[in-house]
Structure formats: structure tokens, C-alpha cells
Design goal:
It is built from 23 helices and no strands. It is mainly alpha-helical. The chain has one domain. Helix 1 runs antiparallel to helix 17, helix 10 runs parallel beside helix 12 and helix 19 crosses helix 21. It starts with a helix and ends in a 6-residue tail after the last helix.
Length: 459
């Protein structure tokens, strides 16, 4: 094993062990909301230890097995649909039995907007219009909260299927596909949104993951770029934060232009995207291409007005961005949403850039890197009005970006460094699993203490 492989293995293993230690020992730090509360039930610490031992014993053996090394085979669309429908039922039942308890007023406001069928928030333009009309159709049959949890289970299932599809696009073998999928599915920002979450973010996650799958398919030469461009164009009208997808369209465009007939295909994709983005303003504004009115409505919905010692608009003031308080909040935000994925993206990603010329030149890596970098900038400057803890779900869907870029870089490292890879993979899955034991459906535990650790920005 080379020195570089050993160094990366030590760094990743040490980082993952540190995350495990936070969960198992639960030190009382200035901010603790990202890793507590494994001790909320007497059985959870023991279960966490069993999970770690089981992963370390079973994952390396499974990774080295013959089925894991087999190449990927095509999957029939009918099978994907059947498994997706079955998954929707399972996720919906789980969410109805164990719904997430809200920690902010957002779910109440969301439910009220849907009940009134009120298209009055520019940030959720098409989302409110679509869900409001659907809820009106089904209201005689089912209460709105139940309907929305079932619908969100469908969105979450789409996201899970799309993430598995992305993993297949990035992998060479069945084992690699399973590993990337497991890392993505176990990210807290993905998993928590799938369990009875009553807010907009499961649908946002679905949009983001479907777009990623389409983008990887286009770059792999399997799809016409029109599909990725259309989803990327309409996504911000569904939820304004999905404007984060726009920079990655440049990577797709560059990949398309390198192929024969790329200019013609790209022109067709851009024209279709422009048309769809124009039609998207009709539901609220009554006319196409009302982009100016849309931007004004979105800006008005994002402006909380004058706040003492704070800023107007949706962004944090620079005097706060550059403080140690904000840096600590960022660290805990990333640890909560996808600590494992962020660590793998940083550690294995640095190795990929420095030591894997083929990997760093891959269009898929550029695409995922564009998404992850834009998301990082968004988390740094966006104002979580209810505090970093209270507004954690504002950044939740970014777990799809961090887990995939981290999983891809990690798999690339594993191809070059196979000896330590299986053990580090086992530790990564164990860490993600323990994190879910500690935080899944537990954000309301000791809510007062954690809200005090990360106060809101309204007052």
C-alpha cells in the first residue's frame, strides 16, 4: 500500500472515528444539536455499538464477495416502476406511523397555504399551485396533512430511486453501486425527509435528484440534453432555491458540445428550456415570460423586513458570515445533514484532484463538483431565519449533492487503494447508521436547549 493510500485512509478513518465519538460520548460543547441524542433511550447506545461491530465484520466480507465484483446489468423500466411503487407504499406507511414533529412554524404555514390553495409565496410558485389543486381534489377523501405526507412519501421515493440511478451511472460494479447508494440513502438530509415530513423539501429533493440523474445520463451519452435542461429550467419556479442547479448546466452544455451534432442538440435543449420557463409563470401571473414579476414576488417573500442588528433580504450580512459563531454553525449543519458525505468529499475529493488525473477530468466529476460547490456557497451565505438548527431543512436536500460527490470520490480512491477501502467503507456506513440512530425523528428532543444554542434571526 502506497503512502498516499495510507495517509488518506488514516485521515478518513480518523475523521469517521471522531464523528462516532461525538455520538457515543455526547460531549457538552457550545453547540450539540448535530450529534445528540443517542442517549435518549437506554437501548440506543448498545444498538449503536452492535451496528459498528456488525458493519466492520460484514461490510468488508460483502465487498470482497463475487457478486460485489460483478459488472452492472441493465434494469428493466417496469421493474424500476414496480419497486418504486412498492417503496412508496412502504415509505408512506412509515411516515404515517412515525411522522416528524415540527421544530419551527414552517410546516404550519405550509399546511395553511395548501388548505387555502393560496398561491401567495413567490419562492414556492409552482409548488403551492400544484399541491393546492391536488389537495383540493383529494380533500373529500383524506385530510390534508395525511394527503401531504403520502404525497411527500412519493417525492421521497422518487429521490431514493434517482439516487440509486445516479450511483449506477457513477459505478463500475454492483458493489460500487450499492456502496454509493447506501452512502446517499443514509445521509440524514435524505433519510429524514422521507419519514412523514410535512414541508416542501421532499419535493425539492426529488427535483434535485432527478436532475442529477438526467445530467449524468446526458454526460454519459445516453440521453438528449433537453430533459436535463427542461428540469433545470422549471425547477426554480417550483422552489427558488433550486436556482442552485443553473451553474451545473454549463458543465452539461460543455459535454454536449464536444460531441458530433452537439450544437444542434444543445440549441434544441436551450429552446425547450426557454419555452418551459416562459410557460411556468402563467399559473400565478396569467401570462408567459413574466420573469420580472416572478423575481419581484420571490424577493418579497424572502424579505423579512427590518430586523435589529441584521440585514434585509435572504442573505446573511458579511459581519456575521465571517464570525466564529457562523463557522461553528456551518460545521454542525454539515455534520447534521451529511457528516459522512462531507468528510468523504473533502478527504477523497482532495486525493482525486491531486492523484487521479482520469477522475478529475471526468465530466461527471465536474458536474457533481459544480452542484456541491454552489451548494456550499449557498449554505455559507443564506440566512436560516429560524437559526441554523431551527431552519436545518433549508439546506437538507443538499445531502444529495454531498453524498454523491463524496461517494464518487471515495469509490475512485477505493479503485486505487483497494486494501484499506473496505474497512473505511464499513466505518463510513457505521457512522452514518449511528448518526441516524441519534438524530432521526429526534430533532424535537431537548428543543429549548438546542434553540438557545442556535437562536433565530428574527428579533
Amino acid at each position: 500500500m502506497s503512502r498516499t493510500c495510507a495517509l488518506v485512509a488514516i485521515l478518513l478513518g480518523g475523521g469517521l472515528a471522531g464523528e462516532l465519538a461525538l455520538h457515543l460520548f455526547e460531549p457538552r460543547l457550545a453547540l450539540s444539536w448535530s450529534y445528540a441524542h443517542l442517549g435518549r433511550h437506554p437501548a440506543l447506545p448498545a444498538l449503536a455499538c452492535v451496528l459498528v461491530v456488525a458493519c466492520l465484520a460484514l461490510v468488508p466480507r460483502a465487498w470482497c464477495s463475487r457478486p460485489s465484483r460483478e459488472p452492472l446489468r441493465p434494469v428493466r423500466s417496469s421493474r424500476v416502476v414496480a419497486l418504486g411503487l412498492a417503496g412508496w407504499v412502504g415509505v408512506a406507511v412509515l411516515g404515517l406511523l412515525y411522522p416528524v414533529r415540527p421544530i419551527s412554524i414552517d410546516p404550519v404555514a405550509f399546511l395553511g397555504a395548501i388548505d387555502k390553495n393560496a398561491v401567495d409565496n413567490g419562492r414556492w410558485h409552482l409548488l403551492l399551485w400544484t399541491l393546492g389543486h391536488l389537495a383540493e381534489v383529494f380533500r373529500p377523501l383524506v385530510r390534508t396533512p395525511v394527503f401531504l405526507r403520502i404525497l411527500n412519501a412519493g417525492f421521497a421515493t422518487v429521490a431514493l430511486v434517482a439516487l440509486a440511478g445516479c450511483a449506477r451511472r457513477l459505478a463500475r460494479s454492483r458493489g460500487e453501486a450499492v456502496a454509493i447508494t447506501a452512502l446517499a440513502w443514509s445521509a440524514f438530509g435524505v433519510c429524514q425527509l422521507a419519514i412523514g415530513y410535512l414541508d416542501i423539501y421532499p419535493s425539492v429533493l426529488a427535483f434535485a435528484t432527478v436532475y442529477m440523474w438526467l445530467g449524468l445520463a446526458v454526460l454519459g451519452g445516453g440521453f438528449h440534453p433537453v430533459w436535463a435542461f427542461v428540469v433545470g429550467a422549471i425547477a426554480p419556479f417550483w422552489y427558488i432555491g433550486l436556482a442552485l442547479l443553473a451553474p451545473s448546466l454549463i458543465v452539461i452544455a460543455a459535454g454536449v458540445l464536444r460531441r458530433a451534432g452537439g450544437t444542434r442538440r444543445l440549441a434544441g435543449a436551450a429552446g425547450a428550456a426557454l419555452a418551459v420557463a416562459g410557460l411556468a409563470t402563467i399559473p400565478r401571473f396569467g401570462r408567459p415570460f413574466a420573469w420580472g414579476a416572478f423575481v419581484k414576488a420571490a424577493a418579497a417573500a424572502s424579505d423579512w423586513g427590518d430586523r435589529p442588528n441584521w440585514a434585509r433580504g435572504p442573505l446573511l450580512p458579511w459581519h456575521y458570515v465571517l464570525t466564529g459563531t457562523h463557522l461553528r454553525e456551518l460545521a454542525h449543519t454539515f455534520l447534521l445533514i451529511d457528516g459522512v458525505g462531507v468528510l468523504l468529499a473533502a478527504g477523497a475529493g482532495l486525493w482525486l484532484v491531486c492523484a487521479d488525473p482520469e477522475g478529475r477530468r471526468a465530466p461527471a466529476f465536474h458536474f457533481l463538483l459544480a452542484l456541491a460547490a454552489t451548494y456550499l456557497a449557498y449554505v455559507v451565505v443564506m440566512d436560516p431565519v429560524f437559526g441554523a438548527f431551527g431552519d436545518w431543512d433549508l439546506f437538507s436536500y443538499g445531502a444529495a449533492f454531498t453524498s454523491l460527490v463524496g461517494g464518487y470520490a471515495f469509490i475512485r480512491w477505493g479503485r486505487a487503494c483497494p486494501r484499506p477501502f473496505a474497512v473505511v467503507l464499513a466505518l463510513a456506513l457505521a457512522t452514518a447508521g449511528v448518526h441516524l440512530l441519534a438524530r432521526l425523528n429526534a430533532l424535537d428532543v431537548e428543543l429549548t436547549r438546542h434553540m438557545a444554542e442556535s437562536p433565530d434571526h428574527i428579533r
